[in-house]
Amino acid sequence: MSTSPSTTTVIKGVRPYGEDAVDIEVTDGVITAIGQGLANKDTAETIDAAGLVALPGFVDLHTHLREPGREDTETIETGSRAAALGGYTAVFAMANTDPVADNAVVVEHVWRRGQEIGLVDVHPVGAVTVGLKGEKLAELGTMARSSARVRLFSDDGLCVADPLIMRRALEYTKALDAVIAQHAEEPRLTVGAQAHEGDLAARLGLAGWPSVAEEAIVARDCLLAKHVGARLHVCHVSTEGTAEVLRWAKARGTRVSAEVTPHHLLLDDERLSTYDPVNKVNPPLRTTTDAKALRQALADGTLDCVATDHAPHAAQDKDCEWSAARPGMLGLQTALSIVVATMVEPGLLDWRGVARVMSERPAEIAGLPDQGRPIAVGEPATITLVDPAARWTVRGAELASIATNTPYEGMELPGAVVATFLRGKLTARDGKATA
Ligand code: DOR
Ligand code: ZN
């Protein structure tokens, strides 16, 4: 039997969760020692991490990678690079590809391709209904039993609107120990919708997307999940009212979790006054009152985690008139900085809290055993190093994605990902993906 020589790296002078500086020794992908003076050993490699914060690698429950079908905007490879550079070690690739990920062939392709690239674990999300049509359940069990081991199902982009289909989906996923991630949008209330229904949309002449279209579905699905005893995950919560519904549902023992996007934490519908479709997203940017309420709800745990809804779009689908533009914005490489700006700087979350919302909770929700783990001896070296003092200016053209549709163009943001390790392997360092 041949054994390959073990490799040891020491991350020197780093602050786990922003606490006291230590050295972290990593051997063969596992944390083998944490303490002082470990870098003095005769080790293969030392990474000077003075001043940097170590967090468990980030987990994104909501990423659009566009492969198969729209490889002109993003591929599993370019999206993996963006993810690693953003500090992510696992991402969930949404099912609204072309063909739709509603069968074992597509989900196995996504999983296999992600592993070949090796920068981040790419977990395919399976569609709930065939072709995202909302009519007939997809073969959830086949996808769950495939080599991709799908545990998260979603028709994201579209709502599973039919309550009977939703009920059956919850019953199936309960049996599979999986979870339905709902894009909560009552379609009858959002026909032709272009912007948050409110004063600004009225003034701009854009058809409104009312908050109640989200809140009504979240309330309905919380009731259904409780009735069935199944788990429900709510995608991209965008309104204060949804946070209130979730608070109520959690208090009565519903097995519900929820995510919020960086853009709904930071931006509001004032952005729309320029009519620049880079700000068009679904659900739409809401009011400042909503954004504030979402930050509070993330701080108090009503919202479990941050998910990017990274949604690359081609220039021709974004640089056009508002009504023709596709909804969505890039998110993987800016998420940490937006969380620092909206949650850490105002004192709503400390670094332990960032680890919770960016890594631990999403890993738990998706049932990933080796992600979101504590930074401790014996645990996988799946770690993100963050420079809390850094500031950087966003340039869409410099991001790793093929598409460039970032709403943060030219903005200076706080906090930067300096390095990412996936099971001890360096996947990003100083702005370069390393595979
Ligand atoms: O803004 C969005 N873009 N919201 C969605 O639900 C889908 C996504 C996409 O696929 O572009
Ligand atoms: Zn969605």
Fill in the keyword field for this structure.
435 residues, 9-stranded mixed sheet, TIM Barrel, 12 helices, binds zinc ion, 19 strands, alpha/beta, 5-stranded parallel sheet, globular, binds (4S)-2,6-dioxohexahydropyrimidine-4-carboxylic acid, 29% helix
Provide the β-strand percentage band: 15-25%
State the share of residues found in helices, binned by percent.
Answer: 25-40%
CATH class: Alpha Beta
Q: Based on DSSP secondary structure assignment, what is the total number of beta strands?
A: 19
Give the overall shape, derived from the CA principal axes.
globular
C-alpha Rg (nearest Å): 21 Å
Please indicate the count of domains: 1
- Major sheet summary line: 9 strands, mixed
Q: Give every kind of bound small molecule, once each.
A: (4S)-2,6-dioxohexahydropyrimidine-4-carboxylic acid, zinc ion
Per CATH, which architecture? Alpha-Beta Barrel
Oligomer: single chain
Mean pLDDT: 97
Cα end-to-end separation? 28 Å
Per CATH, what is the topology?
A: TIM Barrel
CATH superfamily caption: Metal-dependent hydrolases
- Decide which structural class fits the backbone: alpha/beta
Binding site for Zn(2+) 2: 156, 183, 236
Cofactor: Zn(2+)
Family: Belongs to the metallo-dependent hydrolases superfamily. DHOase family. Class I DHOase subfamily.
EC number: 3.5.2.3
Describe this structure in words.
The protein is an alpha/beta fold and 435 residues long. The protein has a single domain, classed as TIM Barrel (Alpha-Beta Barrel). It is 29% helix and 22% strand. The protein has helices spanning 76-85, 104-117, 140-145, 163-176, 199-204, 211-228, 240-251, 262-266, 288-299, 315-318, 335-344, 351-366, and strands at 8-16, 22-27, 30-35, 45-48, 53-56, 58-63, 88-93, 121-124, 152-153, 179-182, 195-196, 208-209, 232-234, 256-260, 305-306, 383-393, 412-422, 425-429, 432-433. The strands form 4 sheets. Strands 1, 2, 3, 4, 5, 16, 17, 18 and 19 form a 9-stranded mixed sheet that branches. The protein has a 5-stranded parallel sheet with strand order 9-10-13-14-15. It has a 3-stranded parallel sheet with strand order 6-7-8. Strand 9 (152-153), helix 4 (163-176) and strand 10 form a beta-alpha-beta unit. Helix 4 crosses helix 6 and helix 6 runs parallel beside helix 7 (240-251). The relative contact order is 0.16. The mean pLDDT is 97. The site of (4S)-2,6-dioxohexahydropyrimidine-4-carboxylic acid has 12 residues, from loops.
